[in-house]
Amino acid sequence: KMAAAAGAAAGLWSEVNRCGQNGDFARALKSVNKILQINKDDVTALQCKVVCLIQNGNFKEALGVINTHTKVLTSDVIAFEKAYCEYRLNRIESALKTIQSASQQTDKLKELYGQVLYRLERYDDCLAAYRDLIRNSQDEYEEERKTNLSAVVAAQSTWEKVVPEDLGLREATYELCYNSACALIGQGKLNEAMKKLQKAEELCRQSLSEDSDVTEEDIEAELAIIHGQMAYIMQLQGRTEDALQLYNQIIKLKPTDVGLLAVIANNIITINKDQNVFDSKKKVKLTNAEGVEHKLSKKQLQAIEFNKALLAMYTNQADQCRKLSASLQSQSPEHLLPVLIQAAQLCREKQHAKAVGLLQDFADQHPANAAEIKLTMAQLKIAQGSVTKACMILRSIEELQHKPGMVSALVTMYSHEEDIDSAIEVFTQAIQWYQQHQASQTRGPKSPVHLSLIREAANFKLKHGRKKEAISDLEELWKQNPKDVHTLAQLISAYSLVDPEKAKVLSKHLPSSDTMSLKVDVDALENSHGATYVRKKAAKLTGDNQQKEQGQGEVKKKKKKKKGKLPKNYDPKVTPDPERWLPMRERSYYRGRKKGKKKDQVGKGTQGSTTTGSELDASRTASSPPTSPRPGSGAAVSAASNVIPPRHQKPAGAPATKKKQQQKKKKGAKGGW
Fold it and tell me: In which residue ranges is the amino acid composition biased (Basic residues) (predicted)?
C-alpha cells in the first residue's frame, strides 16, 4: 500500500509540475489537495496549495491555510506568501510586521517591503528601500523598480511639498513621464507638467499600438489617468470649462479604477461649488465606491470628506453637515477646515454669535492656527456691522500686525469708522516694529517696506489735517533721501503751520526754477488732441478767422438740418404765436381754468340715472352737510360732494388726481350702447 501511495503521489506531483508550467493553477490545486489527503502535513504540498490559491486570487483562503498550519509552515518557510496575502487584503500594518519578523530578508521580501512602505506613506524609508534594490539587483525588473522610485519622488513632491532631487532617470516609458509630471505639479510648474503629460500620452499610444490585440478602447482606458491629470492642471490654471469637459469624457469611458473615478468626481464637485448641486450629488456616489479608501492617499480621502461636508451645507442638509464636520474634527483635531465648515453652517442658520464663539474656542485650544481663525472671526464681525470689534480681533494677531496688508486693512476700517487716532496708532506700532526688528539685525538703510509705511503714515496724517504729527515722518523720509523734492515740499508745508522760520530755512534747500525747468515742446503740446480741444472751446475768435469758422459752422448746420413738418391748419398769412414753445401755464395770456357750471353739472351716478333739482342747485356747497338721497334717486352722488364711494376710496394721504378722474370719465364714455 505504501508503495502504491508513493507511486500515486509521484504521479500527482508530475501533474502539479505540468499544470504549474502551463499556468493552470486551478487543476494544480486539485492535485495538491489529493497529495494532502495522502499526507496532510506535507510542507511542500502546503506551500504549493498556498501559491495556487494566491495565483487564483483567493488571498483570504491562502492566509487561512497558513494560519491553520503554523507548526509546519513557519515564518522562515512562508513569510513572503503570508505578507503578500496580508498586503493584498489591505492589512498593511500586519504585512509590515510579518516582513520585519522574517529571519532572512530575501529580494522578494525587500520588493514587498517597498510597496508596504509606500502604502503606509512612509516615503523617506520607501525611497531608501528602492534605492537599495536598484543598486543591488540586476534582472529584467529594473525598469519597474525605477518607475516605483519615481512614484515615491512624485508622492513626496505632491503630499509633503519636498523639492524632488534629480534621480537621473531616462524617461523612456510613459509611466516615468507621468510620474515626472506629477512631481512637477507638486512644485507648481504646471506648464512643464502639461508638456510631460503630452509626451507620456504619445509614448503610451506608441507602446500599446505595437500590440495588435489592443483595441482603441483599451488605449483610451490606459490613457484615462493621464487625461485626468491633464484636466487637473487645466483646473488649477482656471480653465474650468476645458477641465470639466475632459473629466466628463473620462467618466463616460467607465474606467475600472475606482480611485481615478473618485478623484475625478471630487474635482467636478469642487468646480460646481454651490451651483449644479444635483450633478454634485450624483458624482459624490462615485467617491463612496467600495475599495476607494485603499486606492487613495490620506490627504485625498480627507479632501473628499471635506467636500462632502460642504456639499451637505450647500444642499441645506444641516444635520449631515454637522455630523461629517464633527467626524473630521475628531480625526484631525488641529485641522482648520472642520471648524470653519461648522462656523459657516451656523452662519447660514443666522447664529453668528455662536459661530464666533466656536471659532474663539478653537483659537484658544490651538494657538498655532489662531491667526487664520481670527481672520475669519473678523470677517464675521464685519458682516454683522461690528467694524470696531473686527479691528480689535485683527490687532490681536501679533504675527500679522506689521504686515502692510494688515496695516492697510486696519487703517481703512478705522477711517470708515472715523477713528483717525486709532488708525495713526496702527501706523505707529507697525513702524516701531520695523525699527526694532531692523535694529536687532543691521544698522544699514531702512527696508523698502519700512519706508513705504512711513510714507503712507505721513500722507495719511496730512490728508486728515494732522500736519504737526506728520513732521517727524517727513523728516525721516527726507533724511533717507535728501533729493526727494516732493517730501521736502510736504515738510515745508507742515512746518509753515508750526514753525514758519524753520519752513523758510528748509525752503532754501528747494532747487532753483532753472534747474526745475522741464524741456517741453510747447507747439507739440498745443497741437495735441486734448490741448486743441480745450483751446477751441476757450479761445476768442476775431476777424476773418471768426467769420471763417462761423461759416464752416453754418455749413455743418445746413448739412444736418432737416425739413420740419408743418401743422395741418398752418396759415402762412397769420403770424405764429411767439409763445407757442412755452407751456400753457407760463404764457402771458394764461388766465387759469374757468370753473363753470358745466363741471358741477356732470352726473356722477350710474349710467342712466337722473339727478334731482336740488342736486343741480349751485347754492349747495361742498361744505354743506350731506343729506339722505330722495326716494327714486338711486345711488347717485352729489357732484359738489367730496365723498368718494367706498370701492373707489384710496388710503389716507393719497387723494385721487384729476388725471385719473378724467381717465375714468373717458372709460365711462366708451361704454355707451
Answer: 556-566, 657-673
